[in-house]
Design goal:
Number of strands: 10
Shape: globular
Structural class: alpha/beta
CATH architecture of the largest domain: 3-Layer(aba) Sandwich
Number of helices: 7
Distance between the termini: 36 Å
Helix content: 25-40%
Radius of gyration: 20 Å
Bound molecules: adenosine-5'-triphosphate, magnesium ion
Length: 305
Amino acid sequence: MKRNIFQKQDDSEISKPVGPETVADESDKTTSVHVDSDKASDIINLVNISQVYTDHSPPNIVFKDFNLDIKDIKTRGQFITIMGKSGCGKSTLLRYISGLQEPTSGDVYIYGKKRTDRDRIPMVFQQYTSFEWKTVLQNVALPLILKGVSREEAHEKAMNMIEIVGLAGHENKWAKYPILSGGQLQRVAIARNLVVNPQILLMDEPFGALDTVTRKQIQVFLRSIFESAKIDPTVIFVTHSESEAVFLSTDIFILDSGPATVRHHFKIDLPQNRDDSIRYSTGFTDYVNKLGSLLEDLKKETNHR
Ligand SMILES: Nc1ncnc2c1ncn2[C@@H]1O[C@H](COP(=O)(O)OP(=O)(O)OP(=O)(O)O)[C@@H](O)[C@H]1O
Ligand SMILES: [Mg+2]
């Protein structure tokens, strides 16, 4: 019988490194999850992470001995979405990986090595983060210029990326609202982060401020650049939208809170090439409904603790 992707595994399988369809048990507060095949090597490891805030009594223990291993898939990108109740620690996890924050204790490894200040992992935020006093071209070229690439080469590469994100013709406009729309400004931010060809891209609710139609359009666009042969990063994405998560992801992790654990992890077994029509498929709506009910159950459970 085909196993339901949302089914819980036998308890004996929990807490040892296992395959892609791991579902962690609530009683297991030290959860270790491996994302994919044997061939792949680790891209990110969060090892025995703890985070305690003592500014209030009782202290807020956001993470306690938290572990997460993400394997690199060499030949293609992967789109890993982290979901969970507000305040459970999703942004904090991204900040650890990017280097914007250090955990109270524990280590972050990138490609098997402890992260250093030289490991700069780009991050796209919910708020538009373009430099308003620079043009689209100058914004996208900036990371290359900062790396010491010549102005000419930086502009050429930036123009390529501007075309990929569908902003050709807008390159000399100020990267500023309302000269560019919210969706266009987020594409500038995405282009600026992708221009250095990162192996890892972090995105923290990047489309949260967009209207529904623009949000769907930009999801299709992001999925299409992700599928393009030119770019194959591991994207770590945070969202509260079930349909956005299903549309974009190869993997979804759902975190519990207080302290955070990985409660569910499953693959989205939908075709690699996804356009708007997939939203009407039964497979898609099944994933969205089941994801919604898992999140709802978790919310009820934590509200009762
Ligand atoms: N500087 C800080 N001082 C005290 N507590 C903090 C600090 N930064 C984060 N926290 C706490 O850490 C927890 C996790 O925060 P985080 O921003 O990672 O949550 P989140 O899962 O991203 O939530 P949301 O979905 O609302 O964005 C929260 O309880 C928050 O109050
Ligand atoms: Mg957050």
